[in-house]
Amino acid sequence: MSRLSHDLYCDEIIARTDALRATIRGADLGATVPSCPDWTLRELAAHVGGAHRWAGEIVRTRATGAISPDQVPEGRPGSDDPAELDAWLAEGAARTVEALRAAGPDEEVWSWAWEGSTGFWARRMAHETIVHHADAALTARTGYEVAPELAADTIEEWLEIVAFVRAAGDKRAAELTGGAGGTIHLHATDAPGAEWLIEFGEDGFAWRRAHEKAAVALRGPLTDIMLVFNRRLAADGGRVEVVGDAELLDFWLEHTVFG
């Protein structure tokens, strides 16, 4: 599948970080994040900002090996002060995007995944911020929107991540094989062409853009499909429709946890 442009990913890191900052400004930073219950809203923001600075350091130094988060300058907020957290988030996103723009998408650098490039990190940090902004919005009960092309690309990156961690030996993802049986169809009702078919086989699963019948279909607005698929909304929460074998969809969701 073709990616979006490097510049668009860079733009989204800044725009989505600004949206995250606006969401948490004035909110209870000690509130538990329902979709990430091990974190408070403050810890969620610190995770996002730390990820930005970590990726930025990898890109800036053209790292050929893993960098410990402890090695990243100002990798954590200096205090619990909300104003300092806000400034730290803004500065970290800006520095990372500056490094990504200077490098372009094709420089070789270390990554934990299937591709070691600066372009990988631009895409990864864009989607990291998109999904965690959703976590913050769900916690603070504010509005949340994503452009259709970015929501679709978030879904496709997630499929690539699940395939990678399965191949790398993740025990949960390893069960996503023909033994589960069947097919899953994702069908966005508000974005023409935003449909995917996931097919289980003996060697794992494959996916493609397609409008085809499946054992189970997940139907609804594209953003909500993306959030359910990324385990941010419940499939039975009323914002999407599940048609067919709901247990198969539950099986997929239970076995696609990253990190």
UniProtKB/TrEMBL annotation:
<feature type="domain" description="MDMPI C-terminal">
    <location>
        <begin position="149"/>
        <end position="250"/>
    </location>
</feature>
<dbReference type="InterPro" id="IPR024344">
    <property type="entry name" value="MDMPI_metal-binding"/>
</dbReference>
<dbReference type="Pfam" id="PF07398">
    <property type="entry name" value="MDMPI_C"/>
</dbReference>
<dbReference type="InterPro" id="IPR034660">
    <property type="entry name" value="DinB/YfiT-like"/>
</dbReference>
<protein>
    <submittedName>
        <fullName>Maleylpyruvate isomerase family mycothiol-dependent enzyme</fullName>
    </submittedName>
</protein>
<dbReference type="InterPro" id="IPR010872">
    <property type="entry name" value="MDMPI_C-term_domain"/>
</dbReference>
<dbReference type="InterPro" id="IPR017517">
    <property type="entry name" value="Maleyloyr_isom"/>
</dbReference>
<keyword id="KW-0413">Isomerase</keyword>
<dbReference type="GO" id="GO:0016853">
    <property type="term" value="F:isomerase activity"/>
</dbReference>
<feature type="domain" description="Mycothiol-dependent maleylpyruvate isomerase metal-binding">
    <location>
        <begin position="11"/>
        <end position="137"/>
    </location>
</feature>
<dbReference type="Pfam" id="PF11716">
    <property type="entry name" value="MDMPI_N"/>
</dbReference>
